[in-house]
Amino acid sequence: MQKLLVVFFLFFSVFVFSQDVNITNGWKFRAGDSSSWSSPKYNDNDWSPIKVGSVWETQGYANYDGFGWYRLHVVIPSSIKEKAFLKEKIRFDLGMIDDGDEFYLNGLFIGRNAGKNTDVKQGEYDVQRSYLVSINDPRILWDKENVIAVRVYDHGGDGGMYAGKYGISMMDIVDYIRINTTNDFEFSDTKHVSKKIILESTSDKYDFSGRLQIIVEDPAAHTEVFKQLISADFAKAKPFGYTFKANLPDNKSYTVSYSFQESRTNKAISASEGIPYILTPKAAVSPKINGANVYGVRPNAPFLYKIPATGEKPMNYDAIGLPAGLKVDKQTGVITGMVTAKGNYKVKFSAKNKSGIATKNFTIICGDVIGLTPALGWNSWNCWGLSVSDEKVKASAKAMVEKLADHGWNYINIDDGWEAEKRNDNGEIVPNKKFPDMRSLCDYLHGLGLKMGIYSSPGPKTCGGYLGSYQHEEQDAKTYGDWGIDYLKYDWCSYGDIAPKQPSLHDYKKPYKVMRDALNKVNRDILFSFCQYGMGDVWKWGAEVGGNSWRTTGDINDSWGSLSGIGFSQDVPAPYAQPGHFNDPDMLVVGKVGWGPSLHNTKLSPDEQYTHISLWCLLSAPLLIGCDMSQLDDFTLNLLTNDEVLAIDQDALGKSARKIFDKENIQVWTKDLQDGKKAIGIFNLNDKSAKATISFSELKLPAQLMLRDLWRQQNIGSFKNTFSAAIPAHGVILLKGNPATAK
Ligand code: GAL
After folding, report:
1. pLDDT (tens digit, 9 = 90+) per residue, 643-698?
2. 651-663 tens-digit pLDDT
3. Distance 335 CA to ligand 1 centre (A)
4. What is the DSSP code (8-state) at residue 400?
5. Would you call 555 a catalytic residue per the annotation?
6. 512 CA to centre of ligand 1 in angstroms
7. Which residue, among 534, 525, 518, has the nearest Cα to 484 in the 3D structure?
8. Residues 405, 306: contact at Cβ < 8 Å?
9. Whole-model pTM?
10. What residue ranges define each of the domains in the chain, with the CATH number in brackets?
């Protein structure tokens, strides 16, 4: 058969999407795998209807991993060819698929997303599946019923055709245009912004001319604060770049939209994005001690804690009342040693520089529970994926020490991709060439006052196909202890092949108990992070099995669908959060992310990122930064260094916020704090800016509240009965309410 060109490519998310044939409805599904399911002759009458755009777990296939097929019968009218300016190719948009897929049209193979190999089990879950086919391709049946069959493989956690864009459309001339918005916004001060936009052509055949319109809008007031229309000509070899400069009246949320109208067809392509705005005030030069006010350690385990203090360096640190066995380095603020006797030790920290002195009361609890407040750190996965290396880890550590450690950040965690292909002759796990010496890497991090985390699976293989700990659990725990590891993320992955097909509660717990016992034999405080995507309602038994945290969901990505789907569904596990044992809604997706060697700016808008950090702090979630920290921009730093916001996450009461209001896409989550006050997050899940009014009595809050805006670190006044605020699309206002001072 003649080979026809099929291209699989990714559309940048900000583009407006047009479709000629709607394929969002009418899909059918069957779990399992059979080659006959691609055939148009196959009778799928008894298959179950399924929605695309959400995972199959929520549609009657809870905990199902493995193969599943989606089928859709659809007529493709030839009129769409006639309407199009270009009559060359047709595009099938099949959304995002978790994890790999093959696409068949009328029983004939069109293409697959299967990673490096042709193995559908290696597919990448977070990319839009868009397949291009020539209009003369005999696999398309014009004006007749076509059968689209999608074979999906899910290796664990959520599965299916879960998000993105669905449609069949003619590839038209504007599809060759890209509005490249990847340059960063530049600020001369908070009110003057500029950015270079580039119009690009991906076509060798066509040159373009038309008009580019740029509008900056205040979405709350519905007013345009900037508008410009520019003539633009460009071709593949000659992109058109334009730098716009706008004045922003206030330090708040604005959106900018770009639209290019092509002169031949008058068709337009558009994109829009939020403009970053920084709310976190700069840290003062005088000392301030940040971080939690409590720390857990087990008797006789090596102790490492760096007093986190902002303010001009050099700084002199002290800790009065340390238990026997601990000492503080007065130049670095790093406390080391070992506590032998169980007990609660009240300590007074101080940090002094030429502008002043700060003190803070701190409790060291020597007992059985560690990780009393959620971990604050970095993990390699959301940026580097399997391309993590010793060099990249060290660069992250350096950035953490320079920019974040003063705010309490301290874990540097290596995710999948560090393991060698084979164990050594003694059966011990060894790192691959990218990590020349794990022990010296641990020593290096510890020397900086940081801690080091590692990743494995209870199965024979990790999710990335590297060696897991199956049948080597004690040996691996010992190796981690010898290296100096402080954190273990333990990911179910191929343990799915070991566990029974329909695991019982006992089966879910088993591999985590085995590793728990192994870690207990090691004389180090190693935080134990369960990663099994919430199976068997892990939040109900994670603490009892000895987990310090447990993932409650499948993998996150940097889209609003993923972030909001995960974040706002955390009320179910919320009651189970407690000191030493926390729900983990997955790692942070702010900054430059990529899950592999090439990175991009997070696709979340600035307001979505404020929502992300605010919600995760309210939930008492471990905060694991997932971006390249050697490229931290000012906006991302502002998200990660607000000590009043981080204090909500690190509150020693260890409770999770609960959702107490949910109407018209406005949600209110409140969290009880150790000092008797409440953290209150008011979220706008609408696509437009909205005014939210909360009634204190409806939310069972005290009738009068003194409120503080935590991102701005400003008191906003005393309110009686109600509070209202305009909240940007997908944005938040994060407050601390103090009933005691309300007058
Ligand atoms: C996934 C896990 C991710 C990452 C990845 C590594 O299952 O949820 O967070 O660890 O495996 O292969």
Report:
1. 999 999 999 999 999 999 999 999 999 999 999 999 999 999 999 999 999 999 98
2. 999 999 999 999 9
3. 33
4. I
5. yes
6. 16
7. 525
8. yes
9. 0.88
10. 2-14+175-275 (2.60.40.1940), 28-171 (2.60.120.260), 288-366 (2.60.40.10), 376-649 (3.20.20.70), 658-738 (2.60.40.1180)
